[in-house]
Design goal:
Blueprint lengths: L6 E6 L5 E6 L5 E4 L9 H19 L3 H59 L2 H11 L30
Antiparallel strand pairs: 1-2, 2-3
Length: 165
């Protein structure tokens, strides 16, 4: 039995049986009991030892087929991981390119809107009317001079004959 490095107080009875108490950090006494040792014969011990060795051999040894199966499984997992990482990186780069293109599109839309606003400021409809009527001698058409065409299936009118006068 292990020796206890604790303060021991012993009370021996007259019967010859020794009881030992020990104190561990407070005033409560705890009984230290001895576990009786069972005597075993050598055969039982050697049988247990042999069964333990057999179990260890069975768990540590691996057949060639198990080794090949594990190797193939590890290879498949490795290929899947590499494929996943490559697809993930392609997706990330595509998302970045899309974001760059979207920001370029937004910039172009802003520039286009600004250009349209500038053009609208320079277009003066009164000036155009004045130049057309005074300089070029243009006049508005009368109702009798307007010829209407029926809309065909297409979006524009094809003229095959001269316009009547």
């Amino acid at each position: 039995m292990k020796e206890v490095n604790k303060k021991k107080q012993g009370i021996k009875r007259k019967t010859g049986v020794g009881t030992e108490y020990y104190i561990e950090g407070n005033a409560v006494r705890k009984v230290e009991t001895q576990i009786p040792q069972r005597e075993t014969d050598g055969n039982e011990f050697s049988k247990k030892k042999k069964s333990i060795r057999k179990r260890q051999e069975n768990t540590t040894s691996m057949s060639f087929s198990h080794l090949m199966t594990m190797s193939v499984a590890m290879l498949v997992v490795l290929v899947l991981c590499v494929n996943y990482i490559s697809i993930q990186s392609k997706l990330t780069s595509t998302i970045r390119q899309t974001q760059i293109k979207e920001s370029e599109l937004e910039n172009l839309k802003n520039e286009n809107d600004a250009a349209e606003a500038d053009i609208a400021l320079y277009v003066d409809l009164d000036h155009i009317y004045d130049v057309a009527t005074n300089r070029l001698g243009m006049i508005y058409a009368k109702k009798s001079q307007v010829i209407t065409y029926e809309k065909t299936e297409s979006e524009y009118v094809r003229q095959f004959e001269d316009i009547p006068k």
